[in-house]
Amino acid sequence: MSESFAGIGCIHLRYHLWALERYFAVLEQLTEEQLHAGHRVSHGSIYQTLVHLYQADSIWSSRLTGRPAKPPEPGASLPQTRNAWFRTLEVLATWAGALSEEGWFTAIEYSNSKGEPFRTPVWQAVLHLVNHGTAHRGQIAAILRQIGVAPPNSDLINFYRLKMD
Q1: Cα separation of 154 and 33, whole Å?
Q2: b/e burial code for range 14-31 (CB count within 10 A of at least 16 → b)
Q3: How far apart are the first and last CA of the chain?
């Protein structure tokens, strides 16, 4: 592992993708009814939570890489959404891997969905993206438990143990 801040940022983007891969392996075994059933979480269903997270990741990726930010439409199926999402995260991870140490401290300027302007260092935006994913995977884990399905272990320490040793 690189001891640089840039290396740590890239590792955490890889963690986010790894955790999503583990979740999709479980979610792709669910029925359409299980994916779309309403629950008392912020986005209502497993599928809507995934769509929210995919769109948020895509918007942050666009902001970070300087592309126009527009929420993408989810794919017609869970595998199509997964494939498009993973391509987005791979592009972001590749971009992040090419950033200089100083680049991680450069601020990006953007407006949120309400049109409010912000200026945020790259490292904070990347860690927000990863943390946001962790929060919503936690919601999905709770739904999975409610329907009798064991969620995958996507703990950060588990990633470190499996991928860093």
Answers
A1: 24
A2: bbbbbbbebbbeebeebe
A3: 9
Q: Which CATH superfamily is domain 5-163 in?
A: dinb family like domain (1.20.120.450)
CB 40 within 8 A of CB 157: no
DSSP state of 99: -
Pairing of strands 117-121, 107-111: antiparallel
Show the tokens assigned to 26. Answer: 């479980």
- Spatial separation of the C-alpha atoms in residues 94 and 88, rounded to whole Å: 10
Q: How far is CA 118 from the centre of its chain?
A: 21
CA gap 103, 37 in Å, rounded = 43
Q: What is the pLDDT of residues 41-82, one digit of tens each?
A: 778 899 999 999 999 999 999 999 998 878 788 877 899 999
Amino acid at 99: L
| Domain coordinates in residue numbering, the chain | 5-163
Give the helix/strand (H/E) hosting 9.
Answer: helix 5-27
Predicted model pTM: 0.91
Hey, is 88 helix, strand or coil? Answer: helix
